[in-house]
């Protein structure tokens, strides 16, 4: 473990995640709606996308957002060390945090953001596989993306699954990176979301904060699973 890489990654993660709340607030809108241009709390016009800390002057500073960014990025830095892979996974983790916050707010994973995550991971990892003379890695990543997408598509088609096509697309994109890292990473990435969402759903039911038919977002669990999978390298 490289101490300086860990600290640099954690600082990058925390500092960049501080910009997530404003962007998430503007993007967490129903399907087909334009991004929010006013604050949902005090109706003031949100002129820019860029604001560190709270969404608006009327909102509290969400400490957990930058704390999550610092923890996730710092852990990736500690596990991966000074390798080019870290430069791919850090921005991807930031996009993942943005997607998770939006999904928690409005049960949606906007296609343009999932597409951006795909571009930010598939393109550099494919180039890395070719440049390092490991095309087999590229094949494994593509196969893993296909398997992951197919598995979640089957789950989504089951009656009462409570899982949307946005989850299927995200699982496909995450499957590519996990497959690039290896089959054990993919296994963790596929299993962990269910081990996370099961107890969360049970806790919400027991504390009466959710009913049996309440829709729960799967995106945050998928992204957490992928993060844990990235640590199995
Ligand atoms: Zn406000």
Automatic annotation (TrEMBL):
One MF annotation (Gene Ontology) recorded for this entry: aspartic-type endopeptidase activity
Signal sequence region: 1-17
Domain of life: Bacteria
Transmembrane feature ranges: 83-101, 113-132, 138-158, 170-195
Keyword Membrane annotated: yes
Keywords: Membrane, Signal, Transmembrane, Transmembrane helix
InterPro entries recorded: Prepilin_IV_endopep_pep, Prepilin_peptidase/N-MTase
Biological process, per Gene Ontology: signal peptide processing
One Gene Ontology cellular component: plasma membrane
Domain (Prepilin type IV endopeptidase peptidase) ranges: 94-195
KW Protein transport (keyword) present: no
Family: Belongs to the peptidase A24 family.
Protein name: Prepilin peptidase
């Amino acid at each position: 473990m490289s101490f300086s890489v860990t600290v640099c990654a954690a600082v990058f993660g925390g500092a960049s995640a501080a910009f997530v709340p404003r962007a998430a607030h503007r993007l967490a809108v129903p399907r087909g709606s334009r991004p929010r241009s006013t604050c949902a709390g005090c109706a003031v016009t949100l002129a820019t996308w860029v604001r560190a800390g709270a969404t608006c002057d009327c909102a509290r500073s969400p400490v957990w957002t930058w704390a999550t960014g610092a923890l996730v990025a710092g852990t990736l830095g500690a596990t991966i060390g000074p390798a080019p892979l870290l430069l791919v996974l850090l921005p991807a983790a930031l996009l993942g945090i943005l997607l998770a916050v939006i999904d928690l707010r409005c049960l949606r994973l906007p296609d343009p953001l999932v597409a951006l995550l795909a571009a930010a991971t598939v393109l550099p990892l494919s180039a890395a596989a070719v440049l390092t003379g490991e095309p087999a890695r590229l094949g494994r990543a593509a196969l893993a993306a296909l398997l992951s997408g197919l598995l979640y598509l089957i789950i989504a088609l089951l009656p009462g699954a409570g899982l949307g096509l946005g989850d299927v697309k995200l699982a496909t994109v995450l499957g590519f990176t996990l497959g690039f890292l290896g089959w054990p990473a993919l296994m963790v990435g596929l299993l962990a979301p269910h081990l996370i969402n099961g107890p969360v759903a049970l806790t919400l039911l027991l504390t009466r904060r959710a009913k049996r038919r309440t829709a729960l977002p799967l995106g945050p669990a998928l992204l957490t699973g992928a993060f844990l999978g990235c640590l199995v390298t």
